Amino acid sequence: MTDHSAPDTGEKRPALIPATPAGIARAAELLRAGRLVAFPTETVYGLGADATDDRAVAAIFAAKGRPQFNPLIVHVPDLAAAHSWGLFDDRAHDLATQFWPGPLTMVVPRPANSALSLLVSAGLDSIAIRVPNHPVAQAILRAAGKPIAAPSANRSGAVSPTTPHHVLESLGDRVDAIVTGGKCMVGLESTVIDLTGPEAVLLRPGAVLPDEMERLIGPVRLSAGDPMAPKSPGQLESHYAPNAAVRLNASSAEEDEAFLTFGPDRFVFGGTTRLNLSLEGDLNEAAANLFSHLRSLDQSGARRIAVMPIPEVGLGMAINDRLRRAAAPRS
Ligand code: TXA
Ligand code: MG
Questions:
Q1: Which residues surround ligand 2, an ion (CB under 5 A)?
Q2: What are the structural domains of the chain?
């Protein structure tokens, strides 16, 4: 753990990278190359990847072993950078001015032609953005020059990591590199506030408190404890539904169906429009393509989307979770 000065053979995983200027440059280079790099923020360690790279974002879900595609937070160095990826109204501006950099994540509408991976938003039309207040996170974000998606750097269901050692214990060689920046000061994930509707809604409590925000933007609805309110839009079945109906486990498609295939599909028939999630049957590639393919097939105007079976292993579980929600009866 302490051999930071040991020569890098390029073989050891994960690489433990010190938070020096050279280390930060290396971390940024790995991120730009689509690799997974854990790094400290003031709240918890994040498992970072280039938020514009579908494959890199899919690798986050694979590394965490998440059975679902929860939307991820995009990290940027400042409000100016945040403007490239989210639509900020007056409330969002006021909160950003007061609390950024800091432990506040804002969910705002996602611009129509965003270069961000659709997987980052788990197919939603919104995006969660945060400007972390940690010198190492700041330096990495500036050096990378890319928006960085970063959930907490732990396996799904495990507690959030506040030291590089926690990350190593939880993710081990599932992450390419860990930037060793000491202990996180806040130790609790950021406050998440949803500003996509006329009413501001607290999605996750954190160090920035509701009344601090209310002083700036007026009433904030606390979704926690309100049984009628969604905890997170990502958990709402209807948010995952395309316009077209969805039929699962299809071995062929009917004439008026669009067809979402997986694996070699030369001898599979039907579908007015068809797209393949991964010809090679690679689940990481399939996850990276899932939301964009579903959108494209939906936009083809088909009445229904037929979907070939996806194996229920690894990322296949998250893909199937998403597809089952899309196929669930509509309310
Ligand atoms: O403190 C933090 O926020 C840490 C550090 C690394 O920045 N990150 C973190 O990310 O906790 P994660 O992925 O573990 O939590 C993201 C939360 C989830 O509750 C997710 O549902 C919510 O943010 N979220 C993300 N995008 C959303 C969206 N478009 N709509 C609603 N909720 C969203
Ligand atoms: Mg987490």
A1: 152
A2: 15-222 (3.90.870.10), 245-327 (3.40.50.11030)
